[in-house]
Amino acid sequence: MEIAPNHPLASSETFRKLANEHSQYAQRLDVLAHKPYLSEEEKLEEVRLKKLKLKLKDEINLLEHDFHRTHVA
After folding, report:
1. Predicted TM-score (pTM) of this structure
2. Is residue 36 part of a domain?
3. How many domains would you assign to the chain?
């Protein structure tokens, strides 16, 4: 997940860590998606990475929501 330099949370260490992990999972999933065949182990890894990526996205959305709630209100 790319972070725009002007993103309000770009200076947050937690936000940057979550976004970096999300990007790493996305890159690995992209590698798996381009393979013509996945082993059973790779299929399990793919499912696990999708769940982890979604969990991170939820955490990022929560951080953004909290930020907007405290800074906009």
Report:
1. 0.82
2. yes
3. 1
Q: What pLDDT was estimated at residue 73? A: 55
30 occurs within a structural domain: yes
Q: Is residue 5 part of a domain?
A: no
For residue range 21-35, list pLDDT tens digits in order.
999 999 999 999 999
Closest CA to 25 of 62, 56, 4: 56
Question: Crossing angle for the helix pair 40-72 and 13-33, nearest 10 degrees?
Answer: 150
Task: Tell me, rounded to whole angstroms, the distance of Cα 19 from its chain centroid.
Answer: 5
Q: Whole-angstrom Cα distance, residue 18 to residue 54?
A: 11
Distance in angstroms (rounded) separating the CA atoms of residues 33 and 19: 21
